[in-house]
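Anyone? Bumping this.
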Amino acid sequence: MTAAVTAQAGTAAPPLTRIRGRGRPRLSGRLLASLILLVLAAAFVIPLLWVILAAVNGDPNQGIRIMWPHPFTLDNFKAVMTPETTYIPLLNGAILCVGGTLITMVCATLAAYPLSRYRSRLKRPFLVTILFSTGLPITAIMVPVYGLFVQLALDDSIPATMVFMATTALPISIWLTKNFMDGIPIELEEAAWTDGASPMRGLWGIVMPLMGPGLSVVAIYTFIGLWGNFFVPFILLLTPEKQPMSVTIYTFFGQYGQVVYGQLAAYSLLYSLPSVLLYLVLSRRLGGAFAFGGGVKG
Amino acid sequence: MAATWAEVRPTAPPGGRTRRTLLRGLPIVPSVVLLVVFLAGPILYCIYAAFTNMALTGQVGTQFIGFANFTRAFSDPAFINSVWLTVVFTVVSAIIGQNVVGMVLALLMRSGYAVARALTSAFVIGAWVLPEVVAAYLWQAVLGPDGSWNTVTGLFHLPPQNWLFTTPIIAVSIANIWRGTAFSMLVYSAALSEVPRDLEEAALVDGAGRLRLLTSITIPLVRRTIATNLMLITLQTLSVFGLIYTMTKGGPSEKSMTLPLFAYNQAFVSADLGYGTAIALLLLVIGGIFSVIYLRILSKSEPVR
């Protein structure tokens, strides 16, 4: 709750070691921590090397292993950047995920407002249910969802899939948004209420502008989750022309025997790009990574 | 529902009493409708289907068969195997892996140099931002037969191994740790930034060691966050599908066939919708058991607001 406020101020706390200067070598502690961090960073970056090196490797016989590109080429990108492999799935994914994120954000913000501002007997049971459904194994309910979609003749429909994907992201978004909203003081709205503004006017005019960082976090979290979601569109969208990149990358490269790994890597990079870009653009406004976790604690 | 909302503060927004209380609950309606139609509905349907012999193709011969699907599951060695693999996957990759690595990273971030902090969080968050199918291909490249892991072990003259073949559940667990640690790291970083400095300083002045400071002051102060985070990552890990499906398809010989994949295979590959939903329901129950445990821990310290 207060983390959201901390994040708004954009201030990262000073490093801890500064306070333990008393009688202890201050530098060695920071140096040691930094070294361990760099070792861990290396462990995290090694798998990333494959996708980058393989994408620019012109060797047609390269397998899934990390090797220096020889010869260096951009042909892999050229080969996959065709309408049916990249552009149409990219557009489908954009429609699904941008639409889904917008639906989630609107519903979550509206729902978070009464949860944050008013008291109710139903609030605690509702929040506990939300917290539980946050981790609901969507895979588990996909079988009945597929059945539901078939019976309502909604299977293979992009709008229906979009709304369903938005719903899967809704519990965590409501939870995060409510926690961020708790960090906005209510006094400003009370003043507006006294002046005759409606609660919705207070939400739109006062709370929302102050929630920029919090809403950015929810937007990033929702979009990345939806963009990476492979299973839901895989089950609900049957026509290849309607599938987003998350499914295309699997069906195009995963199911056929001979895979050109350079193209697979190039495609992986293209597919990852929107998530990375959104993160870079929005996280700049957050003043560091701290804001992310702020919405999670009860 | 709407009639029961009361304000937190005495100052009330304008409007008549009845209309006002109705209006207050109104914003929550769109979310509730979506959640009921697309989540609660399918769960109820799941419960119904689990007691039938429903098949994927057509519902003509569907019959109510009581607990037959469940008794079949508990006498099915493949199911028991799948439950164990799911528990191993969840404990190794979420409760131990993501949780501990995330906490270690968050703690180190407090004292490391800015350059080291920036580099590490960039790579860790990069792993989280990448879509799961891509993550799966990356880890095939590392753990496969000519993967870079074997290049490293080869330097020490250890025999090359195909990790995806010999211990696939460990291979997918490692991939899941790599992918999910960012979440725990961010959550713990935020929580640790709120630990009062003067409290830790006082402990240090009183002669507490570094480890003692951690176990007696820092960790207890963020234990609520730890419980919430454990609950979130456990539930998320229980339902991991795409990563395992892309890396191993549950194989070889079902050695990484966790419950989501098992339910998928039964329902969509074997077209046995009734048995598949019964498995899915049991997965929900396992998630429920974990949730109840964590909610107990949470409510012991302070009620959820």
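Late reply, but here is one note on the structure posted above: Residues 115 and 262 of chain B are 44 Å apart (CA to CA).
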